[in-house]
Amino acid sequence: MVITHHGGQCFKITFGDLTIVFDPIAKGATLPSVRFGADIALVSRNHPDMNGISEVSSNGKKPFIINGPGEYERSGVSVQGFLTNSQYQLGAGQTNILNTMYLVELEGMTIMHLGAMSDTMLPPKAREAIENIDILFIPVGGDGVLNASEAKKLSTVLEPHIIIPMHWSGMGEPKALDSFLQESGDTYEKVDKLTIKKKDMAEKEGAIIVVTE
Length: 213
Description:
By secondary structure, this protein is mainly beta. It has helices spanning about 125-130, 150-160, 175-185; strands at about 1-5, 10-15, 20, 40, 65, 70-75, 75-85, 95-105, 110-115, 135-140, 160-165, 190, 195, 205-210.
């Protein structure tokens, strides 16, 4: 499995010929849009920073779209979506907007992507579904999503093998990533892409890996 970061909350995961994307960035978003083909696209919020389906419909691929709660299965990948709240870029009069966090099973690994979540605890149904988290994608940027301190506390509760911070590149509060790393003890690894297998998880307990763009 190879994980690459495309800014904000957008991560591409490839294994074999299959490509999954979380929160693809659309044209007209806060960040530059992405442009690659995906087989499965997961969208946490209906916002240009996270809903660029057209941008990942290329290179002969038309993605299977998952954009809300429920249970899904495609190409050997199992997905569960759970409703949470977000306060990111609210409209006039809004105090919260719905966000979907995803629990994904693939290649024997469990991946959790929290999207633009502002809740400091997971919903009960999500907690019941979790047995072990191999990789946790967690927002750390504040400004409508979890801030550095909240992200640190939640990641400690969830006890994943690997923590990948997001919502710090091109969005979020200034130096949000630095704040999260300081909260976490400044022990981390920085890579331009993460290549990982299930057997590697046994060596990692709460390891923070910053995947740069």
